[in-house]
Every structure is written in C-alpha cells, then in structure tokens.
Design a protein that fits this description.
alpha+beta, two-stranded antiparallel ribbon, Fe3+ hydroxamate ABC transporter substrate-binding protein
Length: about 60
C-alpha cells in the first residue's frame, strides 16, 4: 500500500533502516501476536537517538 516511512516525532527526520530509536508508549493491557512495526506506529511515539540524547541532556 502507501505506507509512509516512520519519522521522529520531535524533529521530523525520516528513520533509516537499522537506526537506533526510542519509543514512548504505555505497556499494553492485552496479549497477542502483532506486527511490531505497525504496532509501534499506532501505539508509540518514535524519537530518534539524537533528539532523545538532547532531551536527556537538558533534563539533567
């Protein structure tokens, strides 16, 4: 179909393959097998490594 590549929710940078990312999400209350990429897109907020490290440096 017409799937858009995942992007960082902070800077909008497209996420490359095998790039380390951080996902902010709640622990799911249900069980079952899912496609992990679709689950992360729907249930999580994707943050690239650069934005995550900048955010953590400002909080300290």
């Amino acid at each position: 179909m017409f799937s858009r590549p995942p992007t960082c929710s902070v800077c909008g940078k497209p996420i490359e393959k095998n790039e380390p990312i951080y996902v902010r999400m709640r622990y799911p209350s249900y069980r079952g097998m899912v496609e992990i990429q679709a689950f992360l897109r729907q249930e999580g907020t994707i943050i690239c490594e650069v934005c995550f490290s900048q955010k953590n440096n400002h909080e300290k």
